[in-house]
Amino acid sequence: MDWISLLVFATPVALAALGETVGQRSGVLNIGLEGTMLLGAYLGMVVSLHSGSPWLGVVAAACGGLASAMVLGGLCVGLAADQVVAGTGINLLALGITGALFRGEFGQSGQLLSVPKLPTWQGLDAISVGTVMLACVLAVLFARSGWGLVVRASGEEPDAVEAAGFSSTRVRFGALAIGGVLGGIAGAYLSLGIAGSFAENMTAGRGFVAIAMVTFGRWNPIGVLAAAAGIGYLDSLQYTFQSRGSALPFQLFLALPYLAALAVLVVAGRGRAAPAALGVPYRRGR
């Protein structure tokens, strides 16, 4: 398999995982990432279909992802709701809304649906290349910038962030906003960059895989990108072996990325620990 195809298949998980890395570094676990990606995939498809512009679809997906993240932020950061429960609710809501809207407009089956795809140059597109560049930029920002220090501190010692004159609540909302936008674009890439279409629940667990890749990459953007590249390679095997006429059932290759994610979760306790305040609601003075 060539590296261009590997990058294309890795991009949805990598982009979502990079956004989740920012959120988790600030102390918020976005279990609703699966729903954010699904909403982005649907909005990207609909807007691209009706406007004829895949880039407008990407913008719509980013806005949808941002809205999803702000709902989660309002519940988890503003109201201190359980992050897992709130995220699960967003996943179920996105699954129901996109499924109902899709069937209402296109019927139960969308196999014949085709939308304009993102333009490419020698197999590459701007989003896949931008994902690699984004990982490098985030790595530098986390290590060298004041913004990165504040985000990391919010995930470790939010009281120290408040003592330094910053608002941990605003930091977490900002990190969630970044993660939501990137998650929405990641979903749009599935429908506009790879499939050129949409199907109900087309994310098929990739949001959860992205969360696992954050752990596997040890909350380091470069490590997360490398982990997502491995998932992209496993995801591409189904097409490689089908084109070669392999006798092995294609379901085996469909399951490989998820088996890898489960393996990551089994060994997640080893090595570097997660941010100390990850998943812990913050209240000033408590």
In short:
With 286 residues, the protein is an all-alpha fold. It is 72% helix and 0% strand. 45% of the residues are buried.
Q: What does this entry look like structurally?
A:
The chain is mainly alpha-helical. Helices cover 72% and strands 0% of the residues. Helix 2 packs parallel to helix 4 (83-106). The mean pLDDT is 89.
Write the layout of secondary structure elements.
Blueprint: H1 3-26, H2 33-51, H3 54-78, H4 83-106, H5 126-144, H6 146-156, H7 158-163, H8 168-195, H9 206-216, H10 221-243, H11 250-266
Helix pairs in contact: 1-5, 1-6, 1-8, 1-9, 1-10, 2-3, 2-4, 2-8, 2-9, 3-4, 3-8, 5-6, 5-10, 9-10, 9-11, 10-11
Number of strands: 0
Order of helices and strands: HHHHHHHHHHH
Structural class by sheet pairing and helices: mainly alpha
Strand content: under 5%
Summarize the biggest pleated sheet. Answer: none
The helicity comes to over 70%
Rg, nearest Å: 19 Å
Terminal CA distance reads 53 Å
Annotation field: number of helices: 11
Could you name the ranges where pLDDT drops below 50 across 5 or more consecutive residues?
Answer: none
Mean pLDDT: 89
Overall geometry: globular
Index terms:
286 residues, mainly alpha, 11 helices, 0% strand
